[in-house]
Amino acid sequence: MSDGPAPLERFWNGILPENPVYRQILGMCPTLAVTATMKSAMTMAAATGFVLICANIITAMIRNQLKAHLRILVFVLTIATFVTIADRVLAAYMYDMSKQLGPYIPLIIVNCLIICRCEVCASKQGVWTAICDAVGNSLGFALGLASMATVREILATGSWFDIHMFWLAGTPGEKFRWALMALPPGAFLTLGFLLGAGNWIGDAMAGKKKAQAA
Amino acid sequence: MKFLKQGWLVLVLATVFGVGLAAVDRALGPKIAENQKNETFGQIANLVPGGSAADTKEEIVAGQTVLKVYDARNRHVGWVITASGMGYADAIKALLGLNADATKITGIYILDQKETPNLGSKITTDWNKQYVGKNVLPPLTVVKTQPTKENEIEAISGATISSTSLTDIVNKAAETFAKNLAAETK
Amino acid sequence: MEYITELLLIAVGAAIINNFVLIYFVGICPFIGVSRRVDMAFGMGCAVTFVMAIAGTLSWIFTYYVLRPDAPLATAVYHLFGGEGPSDLSILNYLVYIFVIASSVQLVEMYVRKFFPSLYKSFGVFLPLITTNCAILFACLYILKMVVGADTPAQMWDLGQSLTLSVFAGLGFTLAIVIMAGIREELDLCDVPKPLRGAGITLLVAAILAMAFMAFAGVNKNLMNLLTPAPAAASTTDDAGKKSQTAETTNADTNETQITMQGAK
Predict the structure, then answer these.
(1) Is B8 among the domain residues?
(2) How many CB atoms lie within 10 A of CB B154?
(3) How does pLDDT run across B27-64, given as a tens digit for each residue?
(4) Does residue B169 belong to any structural domain of this protein?
């Protein structure tokens, strides 16, 4: 039953050509909600990656036993279990971060990215392909979150990963350069412009390829 | 039988996951509880002067779980209560230190807030030291100029609503607790 | 009276001040995906409100009686099997919520298809999508926070408050998505730069909408001051007068937004 793209192709597709944030436009809620700082964005990406990889492995292992009408139920059951585990681990070892992310950790359950990968890849292809696909998509998702958080954190606080950018004026943490970027509208603005930029680059590259081919 | 044939996978998975979750809860539960405890217990020395975290006990006053703070020589020096309510943007949650008979505020620590950065969020800075040493009654009020009376708090400029919200939260929590405490000890 | 005030504050808070879509960023997928036409957006909004009300109610019942630490039902069962002390099933929270949501979606779908075929035609297609709508799970989690995180047992949310939150959060979602669809219908006639077409421009419009909704922050504080009588002065008649006045002002506010929206059209 291993029809569909090869493992390595799945891996690479997940990172750039089918980037979850910029190309598939999946998992928008965390992309907007937790990208005010780099730290929370990366924690989120790690938690999502963990759940995605585990869920993909389990789904790929049981793919031959799946009944069509019960498959969504099985996916949701698997995802919710791993999200609970991720949530507990965060609460035990990174208490401050888990408090800061709050409800957005449980909201990974309904992150369309994970269900979509289970449905598209893991329920049709083998375990190895599913792992590659999950890792690739997690990296792609992390890339998306990182780009958002970089723009927002630097513009809003003048620091990156809590490291103060010394060549920018103002004292760390105290002087907000552009508070709007840390607030909801800033998230929408950043994602809108980044999506536009992504499309623009994508179009330009496609145009170049076409010109070369011709 | 038809049901089992269709659903055995779901049942097996549910059992496996259930056992897994129970194991996780067993392993990490105590650690999480400890984290939650540390969060409040770590602040005791700042909230009640002379308070010692090691000698403090949890107590239930009128259904509310509070901390009864003792000092190192086992004298009852005060209370730590949680206070929460709506701020400007979202809920504000704070810890409030009170003296032994709950008539004076001895300290305040903001646990959770999502006020506007650099305006409302100043409630977490030294600004909140204004509350320290104030009496619980009469209720505190917020003024926009230099405070002249004992029960006045100077608002953060540009964030009057955040300031009044926090003051209202403090007033309400402290008054309710003082009332409950008086009723219980009677 | 105080209870009604509280419900009103929760309603205003959930619907406009902390709008689920524009402030908490939940339910973004349908907000971008199904906001092309006003009638579709409205159908989606109704479906979400409906399911949210049911899921919110059920999740409160489960949280209060079974899941929260020391919940009456769970503790009783636990003691029946010889356990001691309070029970704590909070590790099952997320599993239970997601199943509550999935089954209420299923129930609503079956019920509506059977008894209201015409209604089913207008918003039935959105129902399966709602299972993975973060807004509904977020409402459940919000209720969880208000039940488990309360300072005193008296402040613990009851069924009425949970229901108010879920219904008005759903209405807030409807409001946001309908406004968005109205703007997007007009955007079809505009010359949008090619890379921004589709999701890009939608997000930029959402940014402006979020800014507009941020202006509501703090409204609840003043509402509360108006609605709760000052301890010394305020007589009852005075209070009633004030209340109708506030109701008018809030109405005027929402009307104004709608007018601006129509103006934008």
Answers:
(1) no
(2) 14
(3) 998 999 888 888 888 888 888 888 887 778 888 887 78
(4) yes
pTM of the entire structure? Answer: 0.86
Q: What is chain C's Cα-based Rg?
A: 21
Spatial CA neighbour of B95 closest among B176, B169, B182? B169
Cα gap C79→C98, rounded to integer Å = 27
Owning domain of residue A174: 7-213
**Sign of the Cα pseudo-torsion (C141, C144, C146, C149, in order):** negative
d(CA B111, CA C88) in angstroms, rounded, equals 24
Question: What is the distance in angstroms between the Cα of C101 and the nearest Cα belonging to chain A?
Answer: 11
Instruction: For chain A, positions 76-135, list CB contacts with chain B under 8 A.
Output: 77-78, 81, 84-85, 88-89, 91-93, 95, 99
Residues with Cβ within 8 Å of residue A160, at least 6 apart in sequence? A38, A150, A153, A154
CA distances from A97 to A38, A43, A150 (A): 12, 8, 18
List CB contacts (< 8 A) between A70 and chain B. 6-7, 9-10
Nearest CA-CA distance, residue A116 and chain C, Å: 11
Q: Residue B173 falls within a domain, yes or no?
A: yes
Residues of C with CB under 8 A from a CB of B: 9, 13, 18, 23, 91-92, 95, 149, 151-154, 217-218, 220-221, 224
Give the pLDDT band of residue C262 (cuts 50, 70, 90): very low
Cross-chain Cβ contact C137/A72 below 8 Å: no
What stretches of chain B adopt beta strand conformation (E)? 57-61, 64-70, 76-86, 91-99, 105-112, 141-143, 152-154
| Encoded tokens for B26 | 């067993």
- The answer to whether A68 touches A123, Cβ cutoff 8 Å, is no
| Nearest CA-CA distance, residue A22 and chain C, Å | 10
Is A2 a domain residue?
no
Total domains, chain A: 1
Question: What's the burial of C119, exposed, middle or buried (CB within 10 Å: 0-12/13-18/19+)?
Answer: middle
CB A58 within 8 A of CB A123: no
Alpha helices by DSSP H, chain A: 7-15, 28-33, 38-61, 71-93, 95-101, 112-117, 127-157, 184-213
Say if residue C250's pLDDT is above 70.
no
- A20 within 8 A of A140, measured Cβ to Cβ: yes
Q: Which residues make Cβ contacts (< 8 Å) with residue B47, sequence separation at least 6?
A: B69, B78, B80, B95, B96, B97, B106, B107, B108, B109
- Chain C CB contacts of B84 below 8 Å: 149, 151
CB B88 within 8 Å of CB C221: yes
Number of domains in chain B: 1
Q: Is B86 part of a structural domain of the chain?
A: yes
Contact C157, C146 (CB under 8 A): yes
Tens of pLDDT along A18-65?
888 888 888 888 888 888 889 999 999 999 999 999 999 999 998 888
Domain encompassing residue B102: 43-184
In the numeric block, the tokens 């964030």 are attached to: B159
Rama region for A162: left / alpha / beta (φ>0; ψ in -120 to 50; rest): left
Q: Among partner residues C9, C18, C153, which is closest to B63 by beta-carbon distance?
A: C153
Chain C residues lying within 8 Å of A33, measured CB to CB: 24-26
A1 falls within a domain: no
pLDDT beyond 70 at A175: no
Q: What confidence score (pLDDT) does residue C141 get? A: 93
